[in-house]
Amino acid sequence: MMLTIAYIEEPPFGWTDANQSATGADIELAETILRAIGVTKINYQGSHALLDAFNQQLRTYLGSDDHRRRTLRFGLTRNEIDPVVPG
């Protein structure tokens, strides 16, 4: 089984070395656990494209009927939502 861990800037549980490769004790622990459950190949992939795609979807969702319906139960109305909805 192959697994890709995508992160935006730094790996989620470690650091990058001078070659921008994932490294550190937390990485080693995570790899040990993942291999114990059958993962045979682990790819670490940093990408600003992931952040950009997430933010685009978030901008699309903010202010939508579904967003307003879900937040209404927490007392959020158009007075709180409209100022943060992208133009």
The rounded Rg comes to: 19 Å
Strand content: 15-25%
Mean pLDDT: 76
Largest sheet strand order: 1-4
Count, helices: 4
Question: Would you give an account of this structure?
Answer:
There is one protein chain. The protein is of the alpha+beta class. The chain has 2 domains: about 1-45, no CATH class; about 50-85, no CATH class. The protein is about 45% helix and about 20% strand. The protein is built from 4 helices and 4 strands, in the order E-E-E-H-E-H-H-H. The chain has helices at about 25-35, 50-60, 65-70, 80; strands at about 1-5, 15, 20-25, 40-45. The chain has a two-stranded parallel ribbon. It has a two-stranded antiparallel sheet with strand order 2-3. A hairpin with a 5-residue loop joins strand 2 and strand 3. The longest helix is centred in the middle third of the chain and has 14 residues, at about 50-60. The model has no long low-confidence stretch (mean pLDDT about 75).
